[in-house]
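Usage example:
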Amino acid sequence: MTILETSIDIAFVLVMLGVVFAFVRLVKGPSLPDRIVALDMMTVLIVSFCGLFALQSGDVAFIDVAIVLALIGFLATVALARFVERRQARIEDGDGDDTLGDEQ
Amino acid sequence: MILELILSFLVILGGFFCLVAGLGILRLPDVLIRMHASTKAGTLGSGLILIAVAVFFADIATTSRALMTIVFLLVTAPVAAHMIGRAAFRSRVPLWNTKIEDGAEEKLKR
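Running the assembly step on the lines above writes:
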């Protein structure tokens, strides 16, 4: 077992611990923006997980997976942030009436 | 041998920064401060690991793809953080020891 293989294994453990911590925040998170931040960071950590797996297996295809995952994660974050803003605007327009989905 | 040592160093440093980002997102007190941990430390960790990938494979197709991923992460992380931060501020998430300036809410309204 070479030094590189050992350090890749150690880095796998560290990255997965980061994902687990982010998942705890995703479950606990008191507000919706907390959960969006945790989800965004989980995507970034899984991108680095794909990089590590490409290093371990020597398979180049996982780099493509990393690119696509980064793209999808960005789109999901932007969409969720827009959703939070629009929900807030709707709540304020309805003067504190926070029932969802009863308009239009 | 030297190359292998450098790659191991990059990979472990990247993993360490990913762990720090996870710890920060778990332990820090409010949304904006957590975003500081996740955006900066997470991007740095992923970037270091992807640099290790780019050096390890060392052919032009793979290296350019890994570098493109890094550039993409560096471009999108501030945009996403800005959007979440603005959404969190507008939805009045409780903040920790932060004094909001007079008139900031009106300026950020629309």
